[in-house]
Design a protein that fits this description.
With about 70 residues, the chain is of the alpha+beta class. The chain is built from two helices and three strands, in the order αβββα. Helices cover about 20% and strands about 20% of the residues.
């Protein structure tokens, strides 16, 4: 699901998305992150509570590894 948050200064054209699973969750505002494809470089991840703040960048393989690790918790 695409968010309505403002652009990040480093990625002004990015389309930030967060999981539909986070919608309606009691912890949605506390623990939600957003992901955007950033061209050939891979993906950017940010805290949805701080859309202008720090961004982590991942190549596709690293992001897949992170997601697989999180899902196994």
């Amino acid at each position: 699901m695409e968010t309505r948050q403002g652009p990040h200064p480093d990625f002004p054209g990015a389309r930030w998305r967060k999981s539909g699973h986070s919608q309606g969750s009691q912890h949605e505002k506390e623990f939600c992150v957003e992901v955007a494809a950033v061209g050939e470089e891979g993906y950017a991840v940010r805290d949805s509570k701080d859309p202008q703040g720090a961004v982590l960048r991942f190549d596709p393989r690293a992001l897949r590894s992170l997601l697989d690790s999180v899902r196994s918790l």
